Amino acid sequence: MSKKVLMVVTNHTTITNDHKTGLWLEEFAVPYLVFKEKGYEVQVTSISGGEVALDPSSIDDKPEWKEAEAELKDTVKLTKEHAKGFDAIFLPGGHGTMFDFPDSETLQYVLQQFAEEDKIIAAVCHGPAGLVNAVYQDGTPIIQGKNVTAFTDEEEREMELDMHMPFLLESTLREKGANFVASEKWTDHSVRDGKLVTGQNPQSSRSTAEKIVEALES
To answer: In Å, what is the CA distance from 190 to each residue of 17, 174, 202, 215?
Structure first.
C-alpha cells in the first residue's frame, strides 16, 4: 500500500500593508517532489482552500518545481475529515503560517487526531507555528518534552520582521515545553524525535522531507 501524506499550507498573504507574504515555495516544492519520487500519494490542502499565494521572495522559476506549483492553483480546503486516512501530515512554512496556522480550529483538530493516533507530524521553518497550540485531548502540548527546531528568533531578527510577527516562533515553542534545538542560521538543520519531524529554515526543506520518509519507512 502506498503511503499517504497530507500537506497543509497557508492562505495568509500580508505582514504589513507594504510587505506581502504567503507560502514559501521551496519548503513546499522540494518535499512534495521527495514524496512523489517515493511513490507516495500526496493531498495538498490549505486553511481556506483555493489558490495559494507564494511569498514573493520565494518565487523561483525552476522547471522541476512546476508540477508542485500546479498543485497550488486550486487547493482543497482543510476539513476535519482530513484527520483520517493519512500516514503523515506536513506543514511547510512561509510567514503566512504565523497568522493562520495557530488559530485554525480545523488544523488544531487534525493535529490532535494525528498525535492521539501516534502518526507522523512534521513541519519546516515557520510551519511549526501550527504546533504551538496543538495539544493532546488532555491538554498536554504535543511538543512538550520533544526535540524540535524551527525558524529561529535570530533568523527572524536578521530579516527584520520580528516586530511584525504575532509571536516569536522559537521562544513560543520553548514556552510550550519543547526542547528547542537550533543550528547556525541559514544552514540545513532538521530534527526527528520519534514521529515528530521539524526543520529550521528553507535550507532544511530536503533533509526534513527525507526524515519524514525515514519515519514512514521505519
So the answer is: 33, 17, 11, 13
Q: What is the CATH classification number for the domain harbouring 116?
A: 3.40.50.880
User: Strand locations in the chain, DSSP E?
Assistant: 4-9, 14-16, 19-20, 41-46, 76-77, 88-91, 120-124, 147-148, 179-180, 190-193, 196-199
Print the domain residue range for 100: 4-217
**CA proximity to 142, closest of 169, 164, 109:** 109
**Average pLDDT score over residue span 2-9:** 98
Query: Distances in Å between the alpha carbon of 38 and those of 89, 207, 212?
Result: 16, 14, 11
Please, which residues have CB within 8 angstroms of residue 215's CB and are 6 or more apart in sequence?
88, 120, 122, 192, 194, 195, 197
What is residue 1's predicted lDDT score, i.e. its pLDDT? Answer: 80
pTM to 2 decimal places: 0.98
The residues near 77 (Cβ < 8 Å, ≥ 6 apart) are 45, 46, 47, 48, 49, 50
Cell triple for residue 78?
482543510
Give 18-38 pLDDT, tens digit per residue. 999 999 999 999 999 999 999
Q: How many domains does the chain have?
A: 1
